[in-house]
Amino acid sequence: MIRTPSKAELRDVARDLHFELSEAELEDYERLVRITLNDYETIQELPEPTLPPHEFSYADRQAGRRPARTENPHNVWITRTHVAADESGPLDGKRVGLKDNISLAGVEMTCGSHLMEGYVPDVDATVVRRVLEAGAEIVGKCNMDTFGFAASGDISAFGAVTNPHDEEYLAGGSSSGCAAALAAEEVDVALGCDQGGSVRIPAAWCGVVGLDPTTGLVPYTGIFPLDNSIDHVGPMARTVEDVATTLDVVAGTDGLDPRQPPSVPDKDYAAALDEDVSDVTVAVLEDGFEHAESDERVNEAVRDGIAALAEMGAETESVSVPLHRKAPPMALLVWGYGGLQIFKQGGQGSLYDGWYNTGLMQIFSKARRAASDELSAVVKATVLAMEYLDREHQNTLYGKAQNVSIELGRRYDAALAEADVLAMPTVPCQPLRKDPDLDRVERVLRSFPPTKNVCPFVLTNHPSITVPCGTVDGLPVGLLLVAESFDEPTLLRVAHAFQQRTAIDQS
Asked: Which of 135-139, 343-347, 492-496, 502-506 has the lowest mean pLDDT?
């Protein structure tokens, strides 16, 4: 039943809405609110339809367990499990790890936060159902920065994820466990989520491949969101080939995710792979090399990688999109303000025409009221700033950021009209050191600079991929390639050719 508010509660609500009500007005509105809420009781009485996220098989499905530290040297796992369907397909024999904000029915989902501990979803995300139907085996839920609110890899209630290339460094985030599990060869494929770089940053720092697809190409249904306009789920693997094969499996509309257009291109991504790039033009985005945090050794490794593409026959040219360097604050505002609305609206948000995970909404709303102090410093700092901004300026800055991003997208499109892909460093700096002694302010602030080249493209809906292109002091460096919307075939083709050339050079 819906409890109606007392007069004192209604007065507090009115004050939050900046309504000044007299006692007489308050009595009238108390009656009107009670009548309104009573009408909504009929919704409570209606049976909720069983939609596809609820349609799954528990065959060969384990609830899972927390691994011992000895089994988890880089802290990549929150839960180890075994879930497989009696199916065969292109992912036969592939071990898959899921970022722990992706619903896997019957297995705990924490989103990297103690606030969600104990929540066991009763639905499978669309991407989960698709990889299982393709013959994959899901072997665990991967550690992540709390609710995806960081890029460092050490903002998780379950501890930092260390870099398998050097455990004194972090894996990067927020899909930290996914990337580190791949680098440690504990999985063959991982599904990460990206709202500002969370697939591509850890993939680059761990020396694996990570794809952030065009917005809407892969359904986000059944995954904890941040903002509908920038929510992405993408495949990660050690090879471009496995990424392409996985994209073939997970791409396509599901009829439930409003982030998706009515239809998306039906393409064979694995078939698009080719080692010949002699007809490709690579536009080197110079602005991506010129951040205050840019490490010249990283820049040099990436320029060497671009030179290798030129040696393979690709044409290279320099381009500039000055607005690229102004984009990170816009992306972080959209991410932060969207995150605030998700937190205030039951972990699902509102105002979209699609499927809502009402079970998650109930659990999250109760947990947030009871245990918000369990949230990380990054989450607290972000939602405090966004709540103040909302009260003082409503959502005008959010709207302006979204409007300017339209112009940003046009400028990228103009550069891509003369080239097939843009190229730049995935992350301008090296991986961050593990440092448990950092104070709260330092730990929060250092998680933002790594996003500077990747976060703009979530605003503009362009697909991008990071592919390993060398090392600096033994730590991986990533080359970021960006293509026009829904041109994943070109993106994957260039990345694959580059990776094959790199493998030959290193052999």
From this structure: 502-506
Q: Is residue 74 domain-shared with residue 213, that is, in the same domain?
A: yes
pLDDT of the residue at 298: 98
Range of the domain at 135: 53-506
Are 199 and 182 a contacting pair, CB within 8 Å? no
CA gap 105, 311 in Å, rounded? 48
Classified as helix, coil or strand, 129 is helix
In tens, the pLDDT along 188-247 reads 999 999 999 999 999 999 999 999 999 999 999 999 999 989 999 999 999 999 999 999
CATH number for the domain that contains residue 186: 3.90.1300.10
Could you read off the pLDDT of 262-308 as tens digits, one per residue? 889 999 999 999 999 999 999 999 999 999 999 999 999 999 999 99
Pinpoint the alpha helices (H) of 348-487: 358-371, 377-393, 396-416, 440-445, 455-460
Report the distance separating Cα 365 and Cα 368, nearest Å: 5
Sign of CA dihedral 238, 95, 447, 388: positive
Concatenated DSSP letters of 253-275: --SS-TTS-S------TGGG--S
Nearest to 461 by CA among 224, 303, 257, 259: 259
Domain co-membership, 451 together with 474: yes
Query: E strand or H helix at 211, and its extent?
Result: strand 209-212
Question: CB of 259 within 8 A of CB of 215?
Answer: yes
SS3 category, 280: coil
Residue 107 lies in a domain: yes
pLDDT tens sequence across 365-409: 888 877 777 788 888 888 888 888 887 777 788 899 999 999 999
- The confidence band for 60, taking pLDDT boundaries of 50, 70 and 90, is low
DSSP run (H or E) holding 306: helix 296-311
Q: Does residue 125 lie in a domain region? A: yes
Q: What is the dihedral of CA 53, 55, 60, 63, to 10 degrees?
A: 50
Mean pLDDT across 47-69 = 78
Catalytic residues: 99, 174, 198
One domain, residues 478 and 369: yes
